Amino acid sequence: MRQPRLALRFVSLCFMPLLALFASPAYASGERQLVEAINDYRAHPQRCDRRPAQRLAPLSLKSNLALPIGYGGGLRDRLKASGYAAVTVRTLRVVGAQDADEAFDLFQDEYCGALLDNQYADIGVSRARSEWQIVLAQPVLDSRVGDSRAASKGLLAQVNAARAKSRMCGRQRYPAARPLSWNPALGAAAQGHSKAMAYGNYFAHRDPDGDGPADRARAAGYRGRQIGENIAAGQSSPGKAMAGWLASPGRCSGLIRRGRFRTGFR
Fold first, then answer.
1. Are β-strands 122-128 and 60-61 bridged in parallel, bridged antiparallel, or unpaired?
2. Which of 45, 112, 117, 185 is in Cβ range 3.0-4.6 Å of 222 for a Cys bridge?
3. What is the rounded (10 degree) CA torsion for 150, 152, 158, 160?
């Protein structure tokens, strides 16, 4: 079973008698039961913090998110070491629950907003007696995106569709702009930066060495004067990434107003 192996990595010899408790099938069953209750709550949400809630997709149970309770190190670094690169992560903890039903009631009472947050896609659960811990996360790379070439082509088509007509970006209206065409150098720069962010566990336009979009484009062989960059993480489709960009006035204007350069997409 996966949970016992995870516990073995961090327990010291003086805590060996507790291994039988971590290995108990009832514990693993309780953790799965808690995730099922949370996903049922997301599928049939009630009002939370006086706000109406919308139906949400279920969370995927991930063994590498089941961190030891009370872990005191950097959360992102610990997840990275376990093979999970997160763009967004949050830890929730409750004490005093004897089973999954009681744990769910406590989590719902104290953290209903987090349980109904659509930015999270994965969940990990850990338990030590009556103490329960949940780790909610969104991965940098979403396995549901599929083939990168198909995603790039789909995103380019959506960008050109958005540019084909007049559009409001925030309070600013922009006229229709000519379509963009694929540029291999920019495509290589974009792909390289995506991989660097994923494996380096960061999310930013400027990399740890201080290089920005223009530096990466020129290093890849692009000689254009105007260079813009939009980045997104955790979305499961090009359409969701595009929707997020168009909803942001700054990112939207970057996609629409520049019409004299070619671009590559990650």
1. parallel
2. 185
3. -120
Q: What is the pLDDT of residues 198-209, one digit of tens each?
A: 767 778 898 888
Q: What does DSSP say about strands 167-169 and 122-128: parallel, antiparallel, or unpaired? A: unpaired
Look up tokens 């009681």; give the residue: 102
Q: What is the 3-state secondary structure (H, E, C) of 47-73?
A: CECCECCCCCCCCEECHHHCCCCCCCC
89: left (phi over 0), alpha (psi -120 to 50) or beta: beta
User: What are the contacts of 8-13 at 24+ separation with CB within 8 A?
Assistant: 10/68, 10/71
DSSP secondary structure code for residue 79 in this structure: H
Whether the pTM exceeds 0.70: the reply is no
Count how many residues are written for the chain. 266
The answer to whether the CB of 68 falls within 8 A of the CB of 6 is yes
Q: At what angle do helices 25-43 and 2-10 cross, to 10 degrees?
A: 110
Provide the pLDDT for residue 27: 55
- pLDDT of amino acid 23: 39
